[in-house]
Amino acid sequence: MSPRRERAATPLISPSLAHQVNRSRVLQSLYDIGPLSRSDLARLTSTTRAAIGTIVQPMIDSGILVEGDPRSSGATGGKPARPLWFSPSGPPIAAVHLMPGQVDAALVSTAGDVLSTSTGTFLPDTRDADTVIDCVVDCLNRVLPAEGAPPLGVGVAVGGMVNTDTGTIIKANLAPVLSGLPLGPLVSERVGLPVYLDHHPRAQALGDRWFGQARGVHSFASLYLADVLGVGLVIDDTVQRGQAGAGGEIGHTVVQLDGRNCPCGQRGCWETIATDEWLRDEAATLGLPAAQTMTTGSLARLAARQHPGADELLDRFAHNISLGIVNLQQILAPGLFILHGHAIAGGDTFRRKIEDHVQSRVLQHAAGPPRIVLAEANDHATVLGAAGLVISHNLKLIA
Ligand SMILES: [Zn+2]
């Protein structure tokens, strides 16, 4: 017998399911492009304006969408178009980023506006799982609205290995109390809302896809580079999770035989040469100032002032980061790589160095060279990604 889990049968398309899929495609167009009129939507989805009307009117009536002010229909005359967009008074989404010792929660609108935030802390070495659940629930209760439309659900991004099928955290090295904790079902029971849980970089990728620089992009990679390294991959509009969320450990693919020891037990993992720890060790060896608190941002500033050795170290770090990106590009060709975390402060100089190393190593293809971009400096991508988990579940297009 194969050890593979059986998949649920795929249902045939009933009229109600067809309506649900069509509704999702309309919403997807709005997320991908922005506010659109009924005529725009009809053109984009190859249907009639009347057919679009039957899809969007129930969403306007139930307060999910709202029609904006009329805009000119141009020289052709005719009825002025009214763009449709997500209603600010529509049902919001609760989002949680769970880190070792800290919880960030937010209430997010369906349009991706962060409406309110709260933060809580717990002792990372606590052995009492209830204190963690209490902390998450307290943070959520501070952002959940007392009145108005009930939230669509809660998305939780976790810095650790997760089982996305059961909502359980499998392993979190920096906070052992989280290991084995069925956080999703426990929080769901306390707040009375559906809870969707995923690994932090995969949620971050959804933040990029729904609300960030990957809007309308079907394949890309979202990297988190700081004290740890994580990558969320979206290929053909599907977040790559592997079985029950076991995938996504690219930081522990070996890029250096007999390299540095990694906390995972192997040697020479990509993570051992592409995080802050490597940078600080090398900065200390070179005698650079403030080596023990060095980040990409402070190193880039030293390099800009032409401090001896700084630009060379920045380039070596960019080279180290490029190795894993090249491997991803050669295997799956996401084409676009979005950098989050401390990499953002490295600025365009650092971005360009990584891009140059990547482009010089990948094989040329008609699809064009892979691009590296920086996430916005005001980076809400993780809580937005946690909110994106709820949107994905509701739309079931980008899952
Ligand atoms: Zn490792």
TrEMBL record:
Name by which UniProt lists this protein: ROK family protein
Pfam families: ROK
Organism expressing this protein natively: Streptomyces griseoruber
Coiled-coil spans in chain: none
Family affiliation: Belongs to the ROK (NagC/XylR) family.
